[in-house]
Amino acid sequence: LWRFGSSARLLKTHHCRPAASNTSPPAVWMLLAQSPGRTPGLPAAVPTNRFFTMPQTTEDSTNPELYSPCPEVRGMTVLDREAFKKTLVVPVLKVRKEIVHALLKGLKHTVLQRPGLKRVVEDPEDEDSKLVILDPHKVPQFSLGQPEQEVLKQLHVPPEVSKYNLELTYENFKSEEILRAVLPEGQDVTSGFSRVGHIAHLNLRDHQLPYRHLIGQVIIDKNPGITCVVNKTNIIDNTYRNFQMEVLAGENNLVTKVKENNFSYELDFAKVYWNPRLSTEHGRIVELLKPGDVLFDVFAGIGPFAIPAAKKKCVVFANDLNPDSYKWLLHNCKLNKVDSKIKAFNMDGRDFLLGPVREELSKELTPAKEEQKTAFHIVMNLPALAIEFLDVFRHLLEGEPCSAAVLPTVHCYGFSKDENPAKDIQERAEASLGASLEGRCSTYLVRNVAPNKEMLCITFQVPADVLYKRPCPAGENPASKRLRT
């Protein structure tokens, strides 16, 4: 077994020849040894639950996994960083210190470009020289092509390519490379996550669960600022829109602070709903509002629609049933200095619509105020259920309809697995309202939630014949009117 110390040494040197005249078979970069006593050509036997920590020397340019960790880490469930040590034999050029910069510029497509690895290292044999590491994929035969040799000739650099032992450690591998080497071959690798302040939020699949603690630790190691990794353990199916989670690695602290669209929010991620993927959508809706408009946020959460709207000098009524969301909503209103501009409620969404919303609309939408330019917006961001709440608008108000220009605009969110999600959302909204929205609504694709599952927003003005219950003519019995019709 070949072993190399932390200070790599320069190996055998040979003169490179022009590519056209190189008729010898290509040099093969091979794994020199994997375990003691191994017979060349036979697979190494790996004892169960044991992982080698000795560095590997690889010289295989034809292998696309040249920078992959050692195969012995496959199946590891408890992170052993020492097991990832590996030594590659890479091509280098010996160059005088004063022309290193010029050489890097001239051979910019040939020198090593891997993040985290130095392209220029000390020459252990000559303090006046440096060793410039070349990309082993670009110089697989330790022989430079004609264009590269021309660059060397102009810089008066000897056309000799040497071999250098480059040691890779756990720190040199990317998180995806580590996880791909550890998890079962051919299985999906989790390297992406949602970041909520110092928390990384994963949605692991069943085959990844045995490795969940290792995955969590790798994410902490490779992402500065992440100090806690959690995995969702159930879907959002409860009244308060939060979910159970398991802390996989790091500190057990789920109170965090995030920034979105230049606003700060603090929250307990275990008790309230927060999705960083909705940042663009929050901004899109707030952009539609004008100073002086009225916003009713039916499922407000911790305030990502309400707080920016209040900062825009809108009149805001914000509601959430979850007492923890309500608590953090009040906290974030103070944090962003809009607590005097938002009326907050801790009610069921239906009760909020039938109570404060109806009361405010009844007061504002009167014939005497038809000339006002105030617009009324109702945001209903509870995509699993919000469409079912639209029936509340049936005869929500009494009296003669006001001008169509001031009828409230609803932004209602929903999920769809239909082949035509926009049509599906519209038809479900129409069924709940009891009226057609054809030609008077728009749908916006917010994001893809899962394969064949979309999140959409349908926007429409509540039709006057839906919103208003007209009074019967004086002296007429409502029952007799129904009999005539």
Could you describe the 3D structure shown?
The radius of gyration is 33 Å and the shape is elongated. It has three domains: 87-168, Alpha-Beta Plaits; 175-253, GMP Synthetase, Chain A, domain 3, CATH 3.30.300.110; 273-469, 3-Layer(aba) Sandwich (Rossmann fold), CATH 3.40.50. Mean pLDDT is 83; it is low at 1-64 and 478-485. It has 485 residues and is α/β, with parallel strands linked by helices. The chain has eleven helices and 21 strands. The N and C termini lie far apart (95 Å).
Give the topology, please.
Blueprint: E1 10-15, E2 57-58, E3 86-96, H1 100-106, E4 120-122, E5 129-133, H2 146-155, E6 160-168, H3 175-182, E7 194-196, E8 199-202, H4 212-222, E9 228-232, E10 245-250, E11 255-260, E12 263-268, H5 279-288, E13 294-297, H6 306-311, E14 315-319, H7 323-335, E15 342-345, H8 349-364, E16 376-380, E17 397-398, E18 409-416, H9 421-433, E19 441-450, E20 453-461, H10 464-467, E21 468-469, H11 478-484
Parallel strand pairs: 2-3, 8-9, 13-14, 13-16, 14-15, 16-18, 17-21
Antiparallel strand pairs: 1-6, 3-5, 3-6, 4-5, 7-8, 9-10, 11-12, 18-20, 19-20
Organism: Penelope pileata
GO cellular component, one term: mitochondrial matrix
Family: Belongs to the class I-like SAM-binding methyltransferase superfamily. TRM5/TYW2 family.
